[in-house]
């Protein structure tokens, strides 16, 4: 039986292991951590459970597909429900908006709360669906590094629509054109953060993202986000995938431009092919350091990072939902701090994710588990101890002002994740959440391919390669990659 070695058990590494096992390979996964999942992990402190990284789940069918491939019923492993309210938005002046999943309800809410014409919402979401229809087949489901991608009917259709795909202006410019109310522009600009980009720089093509949330739906796994990792790990194990935890790969062994296996735990492990799920920038610095370096790709600007306070809060706030956003007063300034000044502003937008709203046992009775996050610059050697101490005060003040509360005395458990610890825990270069940022119109073309063009038998998947970061795209990277590999 042919053997495949996978380096890393992030969501893409797990998906790759399932796909290659399905293709008949004997699969071995080497994982540096003592647990699977990479960024998609969980922690528990003082009776509170938290999903560590991703909190928003879209395109669940990409997870289901892995079970269907293996003739399994997804529901036997993993259940999820669609949200009625995608997010609850708050501003300091007391305005609140519930982003209902139902388009009519959302339009009505936006008319009542913000005075925006419902027809503008309809047109914006139709435009988002249009971008998805024309770009998803090209950019999300195929390798951009094969000629066949560029000379098929989907590509030709997209060339004909180029002017309407938002390549030539920024997301903010497009949103100012489609909405009359500043608060709604801000709400839609926020979608740039879904892949760690800046709405004032990123092309309006990223207006593809609201389509996922509004037209396709946002979901919550009934056992929390970490259940995605657990269920895929369970499936992979059933399919015979072998996992070696606490075993960092030290080197990908290449002979005569063929990947021959890896060095790990002090010895050579032979294989017919090697799949790397480790962040590419750090991979080229370590396990591929003897190989030719794709300098231009590796130098691309990275996405933003995050500062998260996992807080056990000994009170319930009925006004808060699963996803809550407390918007900053000056959004432009906030992104200027993140991407240009590379520091944290005094009035950051605060995201509070509370899984105990849906999954009661994530917090003790009468309490809530607050995953309290702000977007921050990726790590460029800033004084994080100082920035964290200041940000904690700014976040608490922001919450107090917006929710008219005094939150500090209610915090009975605390853990912190910052850009440095994100890199330590998952090897992401600079602690970036999503690999490269998408702050220019060429970004999609400057991600690493899903295969090596110079080393045979070497493949790549995960948030730092095509098509990019975020759970759905990572799952698609594993699909694009495994579609290139013949059956064993
Ligand atoms: P990673 O999760 O990056 O894991 C890589 C794995 O490789 C790690 O387990 C690491 O230990 C292992 N590894 C590295 N080097 C080696 C080596 N030499 N040998 C062996 N193993 C190695 N996405 C969403 O879709 N929705 C969200 O709401 C969302 N929010 C996020 C919030 C935060 C705070 C973070 C951190 C991320 C968020 N993301 C979100 C992004 C999403 O988590 C990532 O894009 C995705 O999980 C990355 O998966 P990956 O397969 O690239 O691997």
Task: Report what the structure shows.
- There is one protein chain.
- It contains 16 helices and 20 strands.
- It has helices spanning 11-22, 61-69, 103-114, 118-140, 147-150, 153-160, 171-178, 182-189, 209-216, 226-238, 280-285, 295-298, 331-341, 384-403, 419-426, 471-483, and strands spanning 3-7, 26-30, 42-45, 48-51, 57-58, 80-82, 85-90, 96-100, 218-221, 242-244, 249-255, 258-264, 267-270, 273-276, 305-313, 323-326, 350-353, 368-376, 411-417, 458-460.
- Strand 12 and strand 13 form a beta hairpin.
- The longest helix is centred in the N-terminal third of the chain and has 23 residues, at 118-140.
- Bound molecules: flavin-adenine dinucleotide (FAD).
- Residues 7-13, 30-33, 38-40, 53-56, 248-249, 277-278, 287, 306, 308, 422, 426-428, 433-434, 462-463, 469-471, 474 line the site of flavin-adenine dinucleotide.
Notable features of this structure?
FAD/NAD(P)-binding domain, 7-stranded mixed beta sheet, 5-stranded parallel beta sheet, 16 helices, 20% strand
Secondary structure topology:
Blueprint: E1 3-7, H1 11-22, E2 26-30, E3 42-45, E4 48-51, E5 57-58, H2 61-69, E6 80-82, E7 85-90, E8 96-100, H3 103-114, H4 118-140, H5 147-150, H6 153-160, H7 171-178, H8 182-189, H9 209-216, E9 218-221, H10 226-238, E10 242-244, E11 249-255, E12 258-264, E13 267-270, E14 273-276, H11 280-285, H12 295-298, E15 305-313, E16 323-326, H13 331-341, E17 350-353, E18 368-376, H14 384-403, E19 411-417, H15 419-426, E20 458-460, H16 471-483
Parallel strand pairs: 1-2, 1-14, 2-10, 7-16, 14-20
Antiparallel strand pairs: 3-4, 5-9, 6-9, 7-8, 11-12, 12-13, 15-18, 15-19, 16-17, 17-18
Helix pairs in contact: 1-10, 1-16, 3-4, 4-6, 4-9, 7-8
